Amino acid sequence: MSRSASRWLVLGILLIAVIGLGIYNTIANRRLVTELAAGKPAAFAELAARQDAYIFLQAEDQPTRAKIASNLAGWSDEKAVGLIVKLLPDPDAEVRSNLIRSLAAAAERDPTSIAAELTAATPVIAAALIEAATKDTEVGLRVLKHTLDSNHGNEPGYLLAKRIGTPSKQVMVDIVRGGDGKGILLAADVLSGLDLSPQERALVGAKIYASYTESDDQAYRDGLLPVMAKFAPSEALSEFRQVATDHTAPSDLRVAATQALIALDDDETLDRLRGDADTNVAAILK
Fold first, then answer.
1. DSSP for 158-217?
2. Same-domain check for residues 204 and 259
3. CATH code of the domain in which 91 resides
């Protein structure tokens, strides 16, 4: 056989192999999609192991994707949440809604898996995780506790607390009582929007004030002051006076301090602030 004929033979064999591999992959992919649509756990495990899981399903039509998204609710595997999160960017609203319902089912089975994803989630994914976790308040509270248990500074956890609302109050109060600086700030911010008893407001206000006075970090103090102002603890009167009358302080801090002085009925200082050069301060005293 001539060299030219040999080359053509090799090329022919390679072409047949490529075509055969393509046919095999097509058949394997169709088999996988069929089994996913049937809700088979082994198929979900196979999809979860694929780096291209999202791209792979985008090749399917909307009804198929919606069916698979719905079926994921029944896959009770620790990899379920990770796979659902991969698929959440789907452009179709029904598919995303089904994925969130599947996340809710996963949260009910194992709140730690949702908490783990929430810790490092992007804002869009965090919103979906929070929506899923709060479909049931008790489940949401379990997710919240797991999210903040080892890290009181985990900001997405406080977005979850705000979504849960009043039932999250005790978790937030416990963090204010025994948390670190950032945790106290974030928990107090949540509590400022909840219905607290006078005793609870006094407790939270006192804890915030203690954290404020104990810190040497000016950025932290500046972040905490507007939250502290919402509780207006009487022991912080001198600090509110100092900030409100400091014309070099940022306007938003002066406004927050002035609002606290209004709550504390500090008429003497308020009279001095009327007609202040800072129009934002002057406006709330009209």
1. HHHHHHH-GGGHHHHHHHHHH--HHHHHHHHHHHTTS---HHHHHHHHHHHHHHHHH---
2. no
3. 1.25.10
Within 13 A of 96's CA, how many CA atoms are on the CB side? 12
CA distances from residue 141 to 69, 102, 165, 286 in whole angstroms, order as listed: 25, 18, 10, 43
- For 111, the token pair is 């709140």
Q: Is the pTM of this model over 0.90?
A: no
Both tokens of 60, joined, read 């399917």
Please write the tens of the pLDDT for every residue from 34-44.
Answer: 889 999 999 99
- Count of structural domains within the chain: 3
CA–CA separation, 102 vs 71, rounded Å? 8
79 vs 256: CA distance, rounded Å: 46
Tens of pLDDT, residues 94-110: 999 999 999 999 999 99
Residues 136-165 have a mean pLDDT of: 93
Contact between residue 144 and residue 171 where contact means Cβ atoms under 8 Å apart: yes
Residue 81 and residue 106 in contact, taking contact as beta carbons nearer than 8 Å: yes
Asked whether residue 65 falls in the same domain as residue 154, the answer is yes
113 domain residue, yes or no: yes
Question: Would the pLDDT of 91 be above 80?
Answer: yes
Rg (CA), the chain: 29
What is the model's pLDDT at position 61? Answer: 93
User: Which tens digits make up the pLDDT trace of 39-58?
Assistant: 999 999 999 999 999 999 99
pLDDT for the residue 133? 95
In terms of residue numbers, what domain contains 158?
A: 57-164
